Amino acid sequence: MTGPVTLTTYDWVPQSPRGHVRDLRVRWLLEEIGRPYRVETTPLMDKTPEHFAQQPFGQVPFVRDGDLVLFESGAILLHLARDTPLLPGGDDGARVLQWVIAGLNSVEVWAMFWVVAKLFRKDDEAAAREAVLLGQRLGQLEAALAGKDWLVADRFTVADLLMADILRIPAAHGFLDGLPGLQAYLARATGRPACGKALADQMAHWAEADRRRAA
Ligand SMILES: N[C@@H](CCC(=O)N[C@@H](CS)C(=O)NCC(=O)O)C(=O)O
After folding, report:
1. What is the tally of structural domains in the chain?
2. Can you give the C-alpha Rg of the chain in angstroms?
3. Mean pLDDT value across residues 79-102
C-alpha cells in the first residue's frame, strides 16, 4: 500500500510523557521511509468504545493503512517497514525480527518495570531493585553492540529505530551513564533527521492540544 497512513495518538497528554508517547516511533519510521501520513486523535481521559474497537487495551498508537487497522507499535513498525531498506530480506530480515522482539520483550519490558515502580508508583525500594535488572540488560546490550554501529548487517534498520526509541527513557534517567557504546549508538540513531522531525512534530501536537484546551 502506498497511500497515506492514518496514525492515531491521544488528543492530549500531561507534560511528563510528551516526547515519549509511542506514536513517536511510528512517526519516525514514516519520516525515514518518506510515506505520507496524517495524525488523528482519540481521547485520553474518556476512552471511547471506538478506541477499544481498534486497540483492545485502549492504548495508542494504532494505524490505518488502506483497509488494515493495526495496533502494537512493534507490529506497526514491521508492517510499515516491509519492502523498504529498513527491513531487509533473508537471514538479515530474520535477525531484524529477532532484535525487534528483543527490544520489546527483553529491554523495553525492563525499562517499563522501572518506570512503573519509580515514576508511577513512586516506590523507591522497588525502583532500586528494578534499576539493577534494567542496568544488567543495558550492559548486556552494550556488549552485544561492541564494535558495531547497528544491530544487524552494518546498516540502520527498523530494529535500531525501535531499540533507540526504547533506550530514550533509560538514557533520560542516567541509565546509559557508564555505557559509552550505548550512548554513541543512541546518539547515532536519534541524530537522524527523521527522528528530529518526528520528535518536533509530536511536541507540536501536544502544544496544539494545550492551545485547543485553553480556547
Ligand atoms: N505494547 C504497546 C504499548 C502501548 C502503550 O503503552 N501506549 C501508551 C502510550 S505510549 C498508552 O496508551 N498508555 C495509556 C494506557 O495504557 O492507558 C505498544 O507498543 O503499542
Report:
1. 2
2. 17
3. 98
Q: Which atom of ligand 1 is nearest to the CA of 22?
A: 10
Q: What is the pLDDT of residues 168-178, one digit of tens each?
A: 999 999 999 99
Q: pLDDT tens digits, residue range 138-196?
A: 999 999 999 999 999 999 999 999 999 999 999 999 999 999 999 999 999 999 999 99
**98/173 same-domain check:** yes
37 φ, ψ to 5°? -155, 160
Point out which residues pair with 7 in neighbouring strands.
39, 63
Domain shared by 209 and 180, yes or no:
no
Q: Give the CATH number for residue 64.
A: 3.40.30.10
Is 118 found in the same domain as 50?
Answer: no
Q: Which domain holds residue 127?
A: 90-192
Pocket test for ligand 1, best of 11, 60, 116, 162 (most atoms within 8 A of CB): 60
**Alpha-carbon gap, residue 71 to 7, rounded angstroms:** 10
Residues 170, 109 share a domain: yes
Which residue out of 7, 8, 22 has the highest number of ligand 1 atoms within 8 Å of its CB and is therefore the one to mutate? Answer: 22
pLDDT in tens, 5-37: 999 999 999 999 999 999 999 999 999 999 999
Answer whether 21 contacts ligand 1 (Cβ < 6 A): yes
The DSSP-derived string for 106-128 is IIIHHHHHHHIIIIIS--HHHHH
Shared domain for 174 and 96, answered yes or no, is yes
